[in-house]
């Protein structure tokens, strides 16, 4: 290999793109980054924007230089993603441009001019030209150039072309992520948005770092590409973290080294030495005491904070203190040892329900309360509020979990930092930050439809919902959650042959004992309900003696339930 024909450099995005022309050859795979990859890219950029990283390395670009045009051998997905994000920045500028003046407008003008100078999409030789869809068909590159001018809609010529749809998806995703950032930071005014836009551009162009390898021989470019992407087993985040903490005490005495090793072994053994499980556990802890990070960000974030012997010892001490609680919650408190950790029937029952509902986002709050010694009475009211927040937000209103993860973590950090400590303070913050309003919950519940399953989270969700509603109607009197035995109960349709639009409405479900479901089920709904011990079922069975259960009955029952749920949760 002729080294005189190879150029190697570390460069930032601005230097990479400026005055260069990149061409993606037809034999390269088309643009295909998925939502997870886009989210990771954005999360890394936010880290840089907010000062958690001075810079961020995003990989390599390998090119073959041919007549002043650089044919991209490796890295075209990154180059395309960078360009799409810059197109979104332009779009955000255009949306607020008329709402600002003075210095904020000057920032926008400068940012827009710099992006145009970098990308040159409307010139004969732009910074990046994408490959043909097929011979003579430039639909992909035409659409790619159009997004910088605001032409993002699909048309009859490109609506069935996957790479075009992928570019549009990435454009829309970045737009949504920026809007989410505005909401998270409570940014409402155009002048504030202008500052964010400028920060996005400056961070991306100057602080995202790549290694660039270029050669004048195509075969050498491929040899380099294959070497850089050779197969191997990358270390897990927890394995990297272990190496880091051991390094922090490498100059300490033997006692300190032994102490660190024992604590790490204790944590590792709790998970059967499963690196992925250890990583997940550490990420939960980090969300409780520092901030929410992705798995890919975890090692870097920890190394920036845990930077000496004392911090390392404190870090491992805290992990050791909560690891048994974490394992117990993950096991749904299946054994006596797990239950004794919490030593409170009510807390145990709610933790059991949360696990059966598939909820783990609240773990940081529990970690923070345990580490800060929050009393049992406060833990009890906080955990019920956590459950209420989830039922309202996710189960009834059908909202996503991203808001909950960040919201729970923020509250956990406030507990850890001792900004709030009592049950009243913590539940008040949960209400203010995350609890959906009575009006939204009531309206959502009136149309709530849930398909039942024999096993899994959906089954438990329905059983728990119906149990609490039945309790509100007078059943399960003086019987606490830990005494009910929800695994011995099932839900059945009152009328399984009704219109498909209403068959899975909550108002068309009844909660019955498993033995009755097994004996009669939905084939003899009258006997299933009339022989049940629950008064709600007996009342419905008496109605079924006289007439069929119809849509009006379902709607009336569900509306009545909607009045009750806002008092339960």
What composes the largest sheet?
6 strands, mixed
- Quaternary state reads single chain
- Give start-end ranges of low-pLDDT stretches: none
Shape: globular
Widest β-sheet, arrangement of strands: 1-6-3-4-2-5
- Name the beta content range: 5-15%
The count of helical stretches stands at 26
Model description:
This is GmrSD restriction endonucleases N-terminal domain-containing protein. InterPro entries: GmrSD_N. The protein contains 26 helices and eight strands. The protein is of the alpha/beta class and 569 residues long. The chain has four domains: 226 residues, no CATH class; 97 residues, no CATH class; 104 residues, no CATH class; 113 residues, no CATH class. The longest helix has 23 residues. It is globular, with a radius of gyration of 29 Å. The termini are far apart. The model has no long low-confidence stretch (mean pLDDT 93).
């Amino acid at each position: 290999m002729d080294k005189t024909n190879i150029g190697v450099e570390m460069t930032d995005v601005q230097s990479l793109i400026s005055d260069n022309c990149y061409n993606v050859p037809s034999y390269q795979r088309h643009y295909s980054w998925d939502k997870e990859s886009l989210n990771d890219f954005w999360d890394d950029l936010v880290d840089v924007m907010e000062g958690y990283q001075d810079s961020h390395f995003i990989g390599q670009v390998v090119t073959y230089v041919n007549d002043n045009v650089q044919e991209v051998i490796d890295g075209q997905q990154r180059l395309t993603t960078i360009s799409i994000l810059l197109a979104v920045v332009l779009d955000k500028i255009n949306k607020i441009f008329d709402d600002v003046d003075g210095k904020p407008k000057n920032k926008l003008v400068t940012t827009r001019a710099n992006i145009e100078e970098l990308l040159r999409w409307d010139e004969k030789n732009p910074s990046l030209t994408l490959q043909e869809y097929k011979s003579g068909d430039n639909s992909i590159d035409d659409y790619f150039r159009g997004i910088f001018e605001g032409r993002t809609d699909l048309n009859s010529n490109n609506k069935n072309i996957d790479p075009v749809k992928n570019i549009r998806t990435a454009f829309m995703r970045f737009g949504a992520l920026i809007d989410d950032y505005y909401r998270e930071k409570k940014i409402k005014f155009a002048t504030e948005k202008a500052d964010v836009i400028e920060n996005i551009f400056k961070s991306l162009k100057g602080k995202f770092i790549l290694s660039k390898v270029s050669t004048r021989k195509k075969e050498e470019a491929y040899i380099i590409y294959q070497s850089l992407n050779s197969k191997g087993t990358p270390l897990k985040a927890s394995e990297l973290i272990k190496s880091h903490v051991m390094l922090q005490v490498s100059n300490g005495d033997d006692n300190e080294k032994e102490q660190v090793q024992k604590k790490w072994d204790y944590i590792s053994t709790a998970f059967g030495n499963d690196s992925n499980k250890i990583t997940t556990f550490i990420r939960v802890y980090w969300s409780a005491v520092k901030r929410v990070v992705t798995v890919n960000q975890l090692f870097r974030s920890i190394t920036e904070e845990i930077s000496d012997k004392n911090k390392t010892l404190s870090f491992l001490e805290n992990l050791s203190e909560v690891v048994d609680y974490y394992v117990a919650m993950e096991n749904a408190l299946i054994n006596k040892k797990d239950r004794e950790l919490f030593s409170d029937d009510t807390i145990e029952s709610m933790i059991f329900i949360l696990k059966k509902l598939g909820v783990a986002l609240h773990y940081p709050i529990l970690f923070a309360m345990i580490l800060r010694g929050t009393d049992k009475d406060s833990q009890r009211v906080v955990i019920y509020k956590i459950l209420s927040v989830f039922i309202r937000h996710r189960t009834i209103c059908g909202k996503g979990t991203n808001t909950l993860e960040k919201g729970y973590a923020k509250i956990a950090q406030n507990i850890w930092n001792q900004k709030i400590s009592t049950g009243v303070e913590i539940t008040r913050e949960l209400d203010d930050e995350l609890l959906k309003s009575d009006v939204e919950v009531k309206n959502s519940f009136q149309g709530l439809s849930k398909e039942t399953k024999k096993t899994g989270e959906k089954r438990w969700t329905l059983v728990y919902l119906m149990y609490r509603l039945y309790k509100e109607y007078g059943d399960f009197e003086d019987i606490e959650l830990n005494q009910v035995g929800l695994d011995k109960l099932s839900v059945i349709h009152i009328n399984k042959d009704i219109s498909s639009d209403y068959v899975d409405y909550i108002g068309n479900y009844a909660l019955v004992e498993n033995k009755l479901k097994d004996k009669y089920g939905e084939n003899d709904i009258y006997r299933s309900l009339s022989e049940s011990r629950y008064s709600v079922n007996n009342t419905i069975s008496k109605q079924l003696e006289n007439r069929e259960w119809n849509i009006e009955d379902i709607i009336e029952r569900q509306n009545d339930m909607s009045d009750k749920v806002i008092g339960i949760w």
